[in-house]
Amino acid sequence: MKLQLLKPNYARVFDTNSVGKIEGMQAELKLKSDYKPVFKKARQVPFSIKPQIEQELENLEKNGILIKVKQSKWATPIVAIPKASNKIRLCGDYKVTVNPNLVIDSHPIPTVEELFTDMSGGEKFTKIDLSQAYLQLELRNYLQICQGEKSLRKSTYPKHIYN
């Protein structure tokens, strides 16, 4: 198979143990001029998934997605989302901290109909499944999440920010 021939030359692309990173591009969150930092304490999580949360936090830290900090003016509680694979996905609940303080981008997102109209007449289509795609875009300014005694800085674009 041709794909097997590509794997040795592009091992980093096919590595399932680490998160990829978009090179040469960073996202920036624009805060309102009158923003006030919001610090929310960590929420209680079910005891049964605490080990999974700790493991996921360690993985995210190991991959440079989260960076330990001593203190911060901002902190967002995490939400653990169960995945079909019996693992969990950690998300920040930014609706209670960052989202109300953001300047909303004035460019409208195209509708599904507009996207399909733009693709009409196309002959070749493809799709790509990026592992943890929302973690691959670095942030120029950082966000904080908190869980228990830990305070961690998020270095990649969060999934539930709506800027």
UniProtKB/TrEMBL annotation:
InterPro entries: DNA/RNA_pol_sf, Retrovirus_Pol_polyprotein, Rev_trsase/Diguanyl_cyclase. SUPFAM superfamilies: DNA/RNA polymerases. GO terms for biological process: DNA biosynthetic process. This is Reverse transcriptase domain-containing protein. The lineage of its organism: Eukaryota, Metazoa, Ecdysozoa, Arthropoda, Hexapoda.
